[in-house]
Amino acid sequence: MANLAGFLMLYTTVKALLMPPGGLILLLLLAFFLVRGVLGRMFLFLALVTLTLMSLPVVAVKLMEGLETYPALDPQRPSVGDAQAILILGAGSNDGAPEYGGDTVDAVGLVRLRYGARLHRVTGLPVYVTGGSPVPDGPLVGRLMAKTLNEDFGIQVAGVEDRSLTTWDNAALSAPMLRSDGIRKVLVVTHAWHMPRAMEAFGRFGVPAAAAPTAFVSGPGQDGEGDGILADLLPSMTALIQSYYALHEYLGRAWYQVREAANGGEVKPLAAG
Questions:
Q1: Residue span of the structural domain in which 35 resides
Q2: CB within 8 A of 206, min separation 6: which ones?
Q3: 54, 69, 96 — which closes off a domain?
């Protein structure tokens, strides 16, 4: 049994070091020792360190900890307070998926839809969706979300906003739809790492909202303790992707502040020009 555990640990380590991003890190390390010139070595060193850190699970979790500040709702009896509806924020699309006969939501959006569907079953609250198309003449994410909820989860949405291009747009362009239906407060469903930016946007545009985060990376049971210290220190594509999303959120929040300051404290939705 001990031999098997040792073999599995060796296999996991070798695989992590040979497969991307581990293999790329080793190539950068080799290039660092082969290249000549201070400037070339400096850039290689920066690339090597950045890629290595972003690929480590322990770093990805730490980056996410600063974003995942809203706690999860009770899975059995979620406290919705005075919320009157569920609003699921869109992500992207999987264009031309042959197994679905055309366009559908991407994996990130599907995670949000699944949790929104669960909340609907538990609370009975109506479901609204929001998401446009970042590509001209591309599939409207909000429409794809509504179709997925109907066909795969058996849920008929109460309303669709399909013009938003950003998180700020989600809030700004959903507000009229919700108000016209008499919705005074919504449960916002999105990834835990995306929730701070979403809640800030809804607050800026005067939409009373409560957080319903999903897909936590950090927190109890999410820090990789069960896999041991070695797994936390081996590069992985999952950690690299998580680090990307975390940095995207930090930069996104900073960019919104810059835009707001440049526009005299006002941030207009991109979809509205």
A1: 1-54
A2: 175
A3: 54
97 and 198 part of one domain: yes
Residue 205 is classified by DSSP as T
What is this structure's pTM?
Answer: 0.85
Give the ranges where 124-271 is alpha helix by DSSP (H). 141-153, 167-180, 195-204, 228-233, 237-262
Pair 212, 115: CB distance under 8 Å: yes
In the chain the first and final C-alpha atoms are separated, in Å, by 64
Q: Are residues 44 and 173 in the same domain?
A: no
Same domain, 38 and 131: no
* Number of structural domains found in the chain: 2
pLDDT in single tens digits along all 273 residues of the chain: 556 656 566 666 776 666 768 777 888 888 878 888 888 889 989 999 999 999 999 999 999 999 999 999 999 899 899 999 999 999 999 999 999 999 999 999 999 999 999 999 999 999 999 999 988 888 999 999 999 999 999 999 999 999 999 999 999 999 999 999 999 999 999 999 999 999 999 998 889 999 999 999 997 655 444 456 667 888 999 999 999 999 999 999 898 888 777 777 666 666 654
